[in-house]
Amino acid sequence: FPLILGTSYRPGARFGPQAIRQASRHLRYNFHPVYQTEPFKSLQVADAGDVACNPYSIDEAIFQIETTATDLNKHTDAIVSLGGDHTIAVPLLRAANKKVKGPVALVHFDAHLDTWDTYFGAPYTHGTPFRRAAEEGLFMEDASMHVGIRGPLDQELGFKTIHCDELEKHGPDHVARRIRDRIGDHPLYLSIDIDVLDPAHAPGTGTPEIAGLTTRELLNILRGLAGVNLVAADIVEVSPAYDHAEITSLAAATIAYEMINLVVCRSR
Length: 268
Prior knowledge:
Blueprint: H1 16-24, H2 39-42, H3 58-73, E1 79-82, H4 89-100, E2 104-109, H5 129-135, E3 139-149, E4 160-163, H6 164-170, H7 172-183, E5 188-193, H8 215-223, E6 230-236, H9 247-267
Parallel strand pairs: 1-6, 2-3, 2-5, 3-4, 5-6
Helix pairs in contact: 1-9, 3-4, 4-5, 6-7, 7-8, 8-9
């Protein structure tokens, strides 16, 4: 979903899906040694291509994304979406709600909360998706969590927050346990902004923040979620113009692969 109309700082996430696909050619993992899964034998995995997001109207682009995701959900167990900026989470959450016929649990990995009411006066931006989602009742307030935040806490909308300092002190296993305790068996939407990673691990993004997660920490947290009821996921804000040696796009491609394995683990 190459949407960038919600971007506020460094542009370029329009080309994120293309860069992630390119980096994924390096991944030749038919067998995952941690999950003990063979995802491409267990599931029929397909690339549905890019959605033709209107580059001039964010309202029209959001409608196009929701319509496409809703249609795809009729034929799939789960959608792993590649962004694009984080605005895409709103229409994707709407589509997930239609799929499960109700709100979902939400786990949001990000350096930022993305719960502004408006950003520069605009209601739909990459800084506001979870405010809009809360207003529409798209996620369960008692089964939602921010992870990796390097800023103020956010309890107004019902989120629990795991700050990077807590991860540093207690480690990935602790974080994974907290997430599992929070979401239970509810259908889960997993949203990962690549800027949750430290810029040393993901320089190619629009709004980098220092002192973030390492790639190993993020993968270990995700692997600690094996068996959760994952119904949809996104990986967003990859901006290849600021990347170096495909560091960021390779990280995003690997994260997407981990998400696919979580779908396999759910199905076992």
